[in-house]
Amino acid sequence: MTELKNRSDFHFFHRLRVRWAEVDMQKIVFNAHYLMYFDTAIADYWRALALPYEESMAALGGDLYVKKATIEFNASARMDDVLDVAMKCVRVGNSSIVFHGGLFRGDELLVTCELVYVFADPATQTSRPVPDELRAIFAAYEAGEPMSTVETGDWQKLGSGAGGLRRAVFVKEQRIPEDLEWDEHDVTALHAVARNRLGRVIGTARLIREAPGLARIGRMAVHRTLRGGGGHGAAVLRALEAAALARGDEAVTLHAQRSAEAFYQRLGYAPHGEGFEEAGIAHIEMRRALR
Questions:
Q1: Using CA atoms, how far apart are residues 45 and 48, in angstroms rounded to an integer?
Q2: Which of 43, 126, 153, 162 is the most core-located residue (most Cβ within 10 A)?
Q3: Three-state secondary structure along 11-27?
């Protein structure tokens, strides 16, 4: 079915651990669950493309429907195995998209699959040609190219895109009052936005001067479905750090939501002072030296 037999044939992997509910009395995974593993991996594959699925399909004027799913078994996964589900887009036809997958336990290939999707009109479910933009995204990702770009600029240049994402994340999702979200710093700050290959803003933050030699990054937001993978937030943060360093700042500070504290720690930030509440959400100040 598929000629992709080794881990080196793939560069997308989704990791999972086999749970009790997924195995039989012999602690071997039920056959039906393998298809679920591959389907879950496909969802993460879309995140790797920096494409929020629902919004992206709406922008492309279609949706994807499974036409065929084929699985070939080599060996069984067992209770508590840590598995890597690999996926690769191997062909884009006129209206079809073909993925090959492999389920690995370490370097051992347990199961392979072929998933065939059809791009179609969501109202009539009649096939449509795969849009050129989507075709190009698949080719770029499988070639190892970045799926997003980061741009910096002032509010006049980037405010529409940055403001739209901030409203979605802070006002609608986190229910922060509108009058607390917008302030006088927006017009003087340096803003950064990350865009995917459809031109949609998926990450944003801003940089202001806190004190001589000290910059402050704030209003950090990443699209809800793209958090925890893809490095979009980190890319925005690094772009603003580079701008702060270039203008002579020696350190950068930020007010991290407690739920994101580990994210900032991985990027070199350390807690500074005691925790506090801001807009009804627990925060901690964190700092990182730039020099």
A1: 5
A2: 162
A3: CCEEEEECCHHHECCCC
| pLDDT mean for each 10 residues of the chain (291 residues) | 80 92 88 93 94 94 95 94 96 97 96 96 94 97 96 97 96 93 95 97 97 95 90 95 96 94 94 90 94 81
Q: Give the H or E element holding residue 246.
A: helix 232-246
Write b or e for each residue in 103-136: b if 16 or more Cβ atoms lie within 10 A of its Cβ, otherwise e: bbbeeebbbbbbbbbbbbeeeeeebbebeeebbe
Instruction: In whole angstroms, give the CA distance from residue 193 to residue 51.
Output: 15
Compute the distance between CA of residue 17 and CA of residue 218 in angstroms, rounded to an integer. 36
* Whole-number Å distance between alpha carbons of 241 and 236: 9
3-state secondary structure of 87: strand
Distance (Å, rounded) from C-alpha 127 to C-alpha 119?
Answer: 6
Query: What is the C-alpha separation between 61 and 55, in angstroms, rounded?
Result: 10
Dist CA 40 CA 63 (whole Å): 17
Cut 0.85: pTM above it: yes
Q: Other CB atoms closer than 10 Å to residue 221's CB: what's the count? A: 23
Give the pLDDT of residue 1: 55
The beta strands (E) that lie in 130-275 are given as 148-153, 190-196, 201-211, 214-222, 251-257, 270-271
Helix axes 31-48, 53-60, angle to 10 degrees: 70
**Are the C-beta atoms of 236 and 57 separated by less than 8 Å?**
no
Distance in angstroms (rounded) separating the CA atoms of residues 52 and 196: 10
Bridge partners, 216 (sequence order): 208, 253
Please say whether the beta carbons of 213 and 177 come within 8 A.
Answer: no
pLDDT of residue 187: 96
